Amino acid sequence: MLSTILILLVVIIAAVLIYAATRSNDFVTARTASIKAAPEAIFPLINNFKHWPEWSPYEKLDPLMKRTLSGADAGKGAAYAWEGNAKAGKGRMEIVNSVPFSLVSLKLDFEKPFRASNSVDFTLKPSGYTTAVTWAMRGSRPFIAKLMGLFMSFDTLIGKDFEAGLANLKKAAER
């Protein structure tokens, strides 16, 4: 009886590991918000890291977080590094592409609590008196992330932060 249970347990664990291995190596998380402001009013809030404390939900994870701005003041070449508590972690992001009033692309590198390199795009699309702002992040998932993804949704976890950030951006831009 015990050997049957043990064999069944090994088969279940193997099935879960095999299923995780078949999951996509890449992920995309994106959220969009409609903001009652012109792209010209929204773009500077994203394109200049000095404005991120006004709207980014990640700025509130650690009030004592150490922040370092370098490179250009805004746009391509502007960089932002941070180091904080266990929630905030440690990392760096740099604007790698900036198309006025329509796109800001970032290279985002995490060091802690885990190592990861992702790309982030903010796209702004005007429509009448509003602008649709999309915050999207793309990256690759190592096996452990694929396995964890079977039990928790990274899209939901990250998506909640993006939704909060876009709501904050909306408040800042609509003033």
Task: Please describe what this structure looks like.
By secondary structure, this protein is α+β, with helices and mostly antiparallel strands. It is built from four helices and seven strands, in the order H-E-H-E-E-E-E-E-E-H-H. A seven-stranded antiparallel β-sheet has the order 1-7-6-5-4-3-2. Strand 6 and strand 7 form a beta hairpin. Helix 1 crosses helix 3. It starts with a helix and ends with a helix.
A few lines on this structure:
This protein has helices at 2-22, 39-47, 143-149, 154-173; strands at residues 26-35, 66-70, 79-83, 90-99, 103-112, 116-127, 130-140.
Name its key features.
175 residues, seven-stranded antiparallel sheet, 7 strands
Beta-strand portion reads 35-45%
**Order of helical and strand elements:** HEHEEEEEEHH
Protein structure class: alpha+beta
State the total count of DSSP E strands. 7
> So what's the overall shape?
elongated
Strand order of the largest sheet: 1-7-6-5-4-3-2
The biggest beta sheet is recorded as:
7 strands, antiparallel
Mean pLDDT: 90
Low-confidence stretches: none
Provide the helix percentage. Answer: 25-40%
Gap between N and C termini: 69 Å
Task: Specify Rg, calculated over alpha carbons.
Answer: 20 Å
Task: Give the topology, please.
Elements: H1 2-22, E1 26-35, H2 39-47, E2 66-70, E3 79-83, E4 90-99, E5 103-112, E6 116-127, E7 130-140, H3 143-149, H4 154-173
Antiparallel strand pairs: 1-7, 2-3, 3-4, 4-5, 5-6, 6-7
